[in-house]
Specification:
Helix content is 45%, strand content 15%. It is α/β, with parallel strands linked by helices and 368 residues long. Strand 4, helix 4 (103-113) and strand 5 form a beta-alpha-beta unit. Helix 1 (11-27) packs across helix 15, helix 3 crosses helix 4 (103-113) and helix 11 (274-283) crosses helix 14.
Length: 368
């Protein structure tokens, strides 16, 4: 089997593509896989590090207002169609798969018009513009959230597969997660994920929670600040006299062994990117979700509301976020084990830990 995977720009588009590639290789050990991306996107460093062949094409997205940049974009995208045609002609793929980002546009369109089987995967509850356009041309549409189907016309193409996860997510136990960070297995753990680049409002709104953790020791706290905000957050802890590196409270700029942190957590406060949401639900974790207000098309709020609708998460918009509100929600949940259990069960019901293998099945259906 020869497969082209196109996707890029952010990790939310890249890591699902990697998970799909690994799912293919698990079943077809000799599969030949080629990734397509851009030089400026994160994929240019991530994909080679993951050990896959990678080819760059020059393509860019359009601005949402009339600018000269759009003239340049038209030129580059037309040229990229020619380059995509060359890649397809030389590689001769059996199928072309897109996981989002404007790099998918020309690659998937070229493949579709060339009569090659095509599949797109949409991670978010509110689909991106590229996938909405491509949906009319491709053969199969795989979705993370069933709510996304409202935005696609060709319902017969749709399969709700979930979002492909890194393999270790569902194999690590809670005890292993607690031991990895030196936490007490007898007390609940609150995991706060400020984002890889940080989330200023979230980081500033957890000080009452941290102070209560220090004073009463009823729960434990693992706080990832994001590397860019670590120093400023540590300054806040110092200013308020809260220890930030103890057996029960740990502040880190970035959690490199994230699967262990997620496995250990009893409650999670985080943003609402599709990848993290998929991991939370695959593990059946209750959460308090705070959408990034400037996400494209407000897709993070759509993701969060999809969990809230089924009682798996509480949602707080950043415009209404403050220390008192966040502290109140955490205390209410930790003091109500039955509510936490219900949220965990609802979260687990939404999880799709076999997404990668389901997408491989969809690929096989197309090819057969």
């Amino acid at each position: 089997m020869k497969v082209i995977l196109a996707g890029g720009g952010t990790g939310g588009h890249i890591y699902p593509a990697v998970a799909i590639a690994r799912g293919i290789l698990e079943k077809y050990e000799k599969a030949d896989i080629l990734f397509i991306g851009t030089e400026k996107g994160m994929e240019s460093s991530i994909i080679p590090r993951e050990g896959f062949p990678f080819r760059k094409i020059k393509v860019r997205g359009f601005m949402r207002k009339m600018t000269f940049e759009n003239v340049i974009a038209v030129k580059e995208n037309l040229l990229s169609l020619i380059e995509c045609r060359r890649i397809i002609k030389s590689f001769k793929p059996d199928i072309v798969i897109g996981t989002g980002g404007y790099v998918c546009g020309t690659m998937l369109m070229t493949a579709a018009l060339s009569g090659i089987p095509t599949l797109i995967h949409e991670q978010n509850a509110f689909p991106g513009i590229t996938n909405r356009i491509l949906s009319r041309f491709v053969d199969k549409i795989a979705l993370t959230f069933p709510e996304a189907s409202d935005y696609f016309h060709s319902k017969y193409k749709i399969s709700v597969t979930g979002n492909p996860l890194r393999g270790e997510i569902t194999t690590i136990g809670k005890d292993d997660g607690m031991a990895a960070f030196g936490f007490d297995e007898k007390k609940p753990l609150l995991l706060i994920i400020g984002g890889s680049r940080g989330a200023k409002k979230i980081n500033e709104s957890i000080m009452l929670i941290a102070a209560d953790c220090e004073k009463n020791r009823e729960f434990q706290l693992l706080h990832m600040t994001g590397e860019s905000q670590y120093e400023s957050v540590i300054s806040l802890y110092k200013k308020k006299g809260i220890p930030y590196n103890t057996s029960y409270l740990k502040v880190m700029p970035y959690i490199h062994n994230a699967p262990y942190a997620l496995a250990a957590a009893d409650l999670i406060i985080s943003r609402c990117g599709a990848g993290l949401i998929s991991e939370i639900t695959a593990l059946g974790k209750p959460s308090i979700l705070i959408p990034y207000p400037y996400a494209t098309d407000n897709h993070q709020e759509y993701n969060a509301r999809a969990l809230e609708k089924y009682g798996a998460a509480n949602v707080i918009l950043e415009s209404g976020l403050n220390e008192d509100l966040l502290f109140s929600q955490v205390k209410k949940l930790f003091s109500n084990p039955d509510k936490m259990k219900d949220m965990a069960l609802n979260s687990k019901r939404l999880g799709k830990p076999n997404a990668a293998s389901d997408i491989v099945e969809a690929i096989e259906t197309l090819l057969n």
